[in-house]
Design goal:
The protein is α/β, with parallel strands linked by helices. The protein is built from 4 helices and 6 strands. The two termini are 16 Å apart.
Length: 119
Amino acid sequence: MSSTTKLRWGILGCANIAIGAVIPGIKQSETGIVSAIASRNLDKAQSTAQASGIPTAYASYEELLADSSIDAVYIPLPNHLPCMMSAAIPLVLRVICLRKSRRPPPSMLFFRRNMMMSI
């Protein structure tokens, strides 16, 4: 990734943490842009995308994961859902789990193309 190329993020879900913290944080960063958002409900994905200035909305998580223009994915879903959808995640993705204390991970990041990123 060159110094002028921004990491293109996809957001899986329209959770409050994504809308209130993650999306604004990525938009304020110098290194990332939010390119797409997905929900199991297309209307919800479209309204969130429009309100947040995100160019693409998907009606399923799998559609967003199949988008080859996405470099990284943030998953603000309930703890059990990222594990359930692991079969849909392409094998080329790297996985980083974010943990708070000893609880199950509240969110996960997936990276494509062997990119490295400091968090």
